[in-house]
Amino acid sequence: MKELRSIRQLDNRQLSQKIKYALFENIKESIHGNELLKLPKEEVLAQQLGVSRNGLRDVLTVLEEEGYISRRRSKGTIVNPKIVNSTCRLDLETELTQMIAEEGYEPGFETLQIKFVEEEDPVLGPEEKRYLLVEKVFYADNDPVAYCIDRFAGTVAEKGAQHMEQLRASSHFDFMEQCCNDSIACVLADIIPVLPGENIARLLQISADTPVLCLEDTGFNYDHTTVLHATLYLKSGKLNYKILRKRF
């Protein structure tokens, strides 16, 4: 009889995401209008979800940081239905296709190009001598609403070079995790209203003198290394973008 010797460890981040998704879906299904919702005690909720209390506690901390719940000793864990029902939050790293779907539109995107560029990027730093360039246009009911330019650090993207065509059908989060053995832990964004210029105006089907919202994103992995420089141009009118400003 053969003995099992090699076991793949479970990724704690993936487990937390599964717990968070399951809990969040249960919360959304239980919300009616703007009525406040109180969650069961941790030990009861953990048992109902079939997870450990430690795993649940980590997820509750994330949900509190994102503004969905508040925890007070005297009142318990309370859900804010207005925040739960809000969509298109720019303070969360939600995929654009998900934002579009949450607004009730049919999401879609077109990949314009994927290629390695043999030059330095000022955000990725001088140690990166090349980067992987990915350009996409995103659609809501066939109407272009966003144009995105992703620049992956070359030393990271090279690990997934043989799979980079997967970017035509998947997000940069999936590409980093599944193909490059790395993850985007957080993103720092500069938010700037700009005039789009002729090329971007053509892609978004607007006039060149129509302002768009530009997000200059710097993505860091869990080692605090810059692994992504993204520029996102958002057209106004169809999607209403929001930012939750929370006092700590």
TrEMBL record:
SUPFAM superfamilies: Chorismate lyase-like (SSF64288), Winged helix' DNA-binding domain (SSF46785). CDD domains: WHTH_GntR. It comes from Enterocloster bolteae 90A9. Keywords: DNA-binding, Transcription, Transcription regulation. InterPro entries: Bact_HTH_transcr_reg, Chorismate_lyase_/UTRA_dom_sf, Tscrpt_reg_HTH_GntR, UTRA, WH-like_DNA-bd_sf, WH_DNA-bd_sf. Residues 13-82 form the HTH gntR-type domain. This is HTH gntR-type domain-containing protein. GO terms for biological process: negative regulation of DNA-templated transcription. PROSITE patterns: HTH_GNTR. PANTHER family: GNTR-FAMILY TRANSCRIPTIONAL REGULATOR, MANNOSYL-D-GLYCERATE TRANSPORT/METABOLISM SYSTEM REPRESSOR MNGR-RELATED. It comes from the Bacteria. One of its GO terms (molecular function) is DNA binding. It holds the Pfam family UTRA.
